[in-house]
Amino acid sequence: xxxxxxxxxxxxHVLSLEGKPGKLMTLPHFFSVPHRPDLIRRAVxxxxxxxxxxxxxxxxxxxxxxxxxxxxGRGMARTPRVKNTNRGGFVPNTVGGREAHPxxxxxDRTKKINVKERQRAFASALAxxxxxxxxxxxxHRIPEHxxxxxxxxxxxxxxxxxxxxxxxxxxxxxxEDVERSIARTHxxxxxxxxxxxxxxxxxxxxxxxxxPSGARGFRDLKGVDVVPVNSLGTEHLAPGxxxxxxxxxxxxxxxxxEEKVGYHLLPTAVPAVRxxxxxxxx
Length: 282
Known about the structure:
By secondary structure, this protein is of the alpha/beta class. The chain has a single domain (2-51, 111-271), classed as 3-Layer(aba) Sandwich (Ribosomal Protein L4, Chain: A), CATH 3.40.1370. It contains seven helices and twelve strands. The protein has a six-stranded mixed β-sheet. α1 packs across α2 (115-128). The longest helix has 14 residues, at 37-50. The radius of gyration is 27 Å and the shape is elongated. Mean pLDDT is 90; it is low at 268-282.
């Protein structure tokens, strides 16, 4: 037996650039999608794996020298020796020899995920930005008076200077989260420093905008990402696979997101199971 049900509707105030609440708008349907942390984690891991650069050892590494084997019965190991020396070479158990099982460039390291699962993970990550508890678990600092999701007026996309961006965030109480990212930025331990990843910067605010060239004033702030709707992915909304990133939307971007997500993934029916809500009692 299957019973249809209506998804709950949520509403939020549109904040002005001065941080004052304005009109009350109904949130798009994807904010009512159930939270699926398993799918979000898989989608993020798949995105990270699929952009990984192929790597591997030279197939001839460790074998570019002439070696000979003197044969048995000489009272010495059967390891091949470099010509005119007594030094071993070529084989894995020698200094300078080949590696036993080196990484191969032709290895397929991609991780697949079903299309509908990836789409549902994206919708679930969007819905998680409405929950304060997920943002707090990620370490974000949210003022008590602020309700999620944060929706600001379309004028936000016209902010083109950093000092103006700071004024907007201070008025809405979100500048404290940027300060958290600045304070916790540190030198990365290990060899990542030699590979262009000198500092580790904690993730702070995410601004979802409708046009690629908007809100340029926020791009120089530590930990802040400005992403247009067309480029938005699950990894932006849930860095590391942990949903609930503190996100700022505009009415224009929400309208574009509604068209991008669509309605075909929304649950419109639930099976009526005995002993559960909506089903017959046992």
